[in-house]
Write a structure and sequence with these properties.
Its main location: cytoplasm. 32% of the residues lie in helices and 11% in strands. By secondary structure, it is of the alpha+beta class. Helix 1 packs antiparallel against helix 5. It folds into two domains: 150 residues, NADH Oxidase (3-Layer(aba) Sandwich), CATH 3.40.109; 116 residues, no CATH class. Strands 1-2-7-4 form a four-stranded antiparallel β-sheet, with helices on both faces. A two-stranded parallel ribbon has the order 3-8. The chain has a two-stranded antiparallel sheet with strand order 5-6. The protein starts with a helix and ends with a helix. The chain has twelve helices and eight strands.
């Protein structure tokens, strides 16, 4: 099968597996990203996320993840919910965590796409990724023309905003490559203006150590006192910079049944959160990404929200 036909087959198979977009980029060292990443790390904007610095080379060079890599396939998977369970609530969790953990939903789909490739070209050297290794996801998705990296550092797609997961297949097969698109943020600064912790100090720069998502998930120690009264009810993750982004008016509800939330989640009131037991935590968040923070971590976050 020639390169063009194989590329078309991959995009068709990706759509069949539920991915909204699939783009293809040449696997090469991310020269433009290297100084940006180095500067970001030097300023300590990764906070306690040591893994961001540990695999610097792998994050920039796909051949260090897959020997002889020639192509990075980037895919988008929508998670925008039909109903925003955070609306009018005192306690909020990021929309991506409403349903089951995305890792377990998306990875088998990637493997199915990869299987379709091997059926056509035989054995290939390849790996699939869903936020699970040092892959510079947004940079690859932007190179593949799936959108542009916005001022909030998230990938934005013109027809579906930014409420989606990114996934990749890195392989040693040449395909027809897509090209990047232009940046459509313009003069808009909605995300920067709305961030209550000033985690976006300049366009396209996010200080991870101040981001509510980092503070409520990645940070294992106590949340610094300086953020008291600034969390705006977020107990796990944060969607503020996405909720205010004008491009997210194009978001459409996902069709993934496994992303449907536990029925009790939408009924939770502030008092229910405060009185939550470990048993209820396990029931509501069974198979959910919220389990990353553990019951003790969620309780820490909920207690911090009480501080004004």
């Amino acid at each position: 099968m020639n390169r063009t036909k194989l590329t078309q087959l991959i995009k068709q198979k990706s759509a069949e597996e539920g991915f909204q977009f699939c783009g293809v980029a040449k696997a090469e060292f991310l020269e433009d990203e290297a100084p940006k990443l180095e500067n970001w790390l030097n300023q300590g904007m990764h906070g306690e996320m040591a893994y961001m610095a540990n695999h610097f080379d792998k994050r920039l060079d796909p051949t260090k993840l897959v020997e002889g890599a020639k192509t990075v396939i980037s895919l988008l998977y929508n998670y925008y919910p039909e109903k925003d369970l955070n609306e009018g609530k005192e306690v909020k969790i990021a929309k991506y965590a409403f349903g089951k953990d995305y890792h377990y939903i998306i990875k088998p789909k990637l493997k199915t796409v990869l299987q379709a490739i091997t059926e056509q070209v035989g054995e290939v050297d390849a790996r699939v990724f869903v936020d699970s290794a040092p892959v510079h996801e947004r940079a690859w998705a932007a190179k593949a023309g799936l959108g542009w990296v916005g001022k909030n550092s998230l990938l934005i797609n013109r027809s579906m905003g930014s409420f989606f997961f990114l996934a990749e297949i890195i392989l040693d097969v040449e395909l027809d490559y897509d090209g990047p698109i232009k940046d459509y943020c313009g003069t808009c600064s909605a995300c920067m203006d709305a961030c209550p912790t000033d985690a976006i100090p300049a366009p396209y720069v996010v200080d991870g150590s101040k981001c509510i998502s980092y503070l409520t998930i990645e940070l294992k120690n106590e949340i610094p006192k300086a953020f008291e009264g600034q969390m705006e009810g977020w107990a796990f993750g944060c969607d503020i910079c996405q909720d205010v982004c004008p491009w997210n008016r194009f978001s459409k509800p996902h069709q993934e049944k496994d992303f449907a939330p536990n029925g009790k989640l939408g009924e939770m009131k502030r008092v229910d959160w405060d009185e939550m037991t470990e048993e209820l935590f396990r029931e509501i968040f069974k198979g959910s990404a919220v389990k990353r923070t553990k019951f003790s971590g969620l309780k820490r976050n909920l207690d911090f929200l009480k501080k004004k």
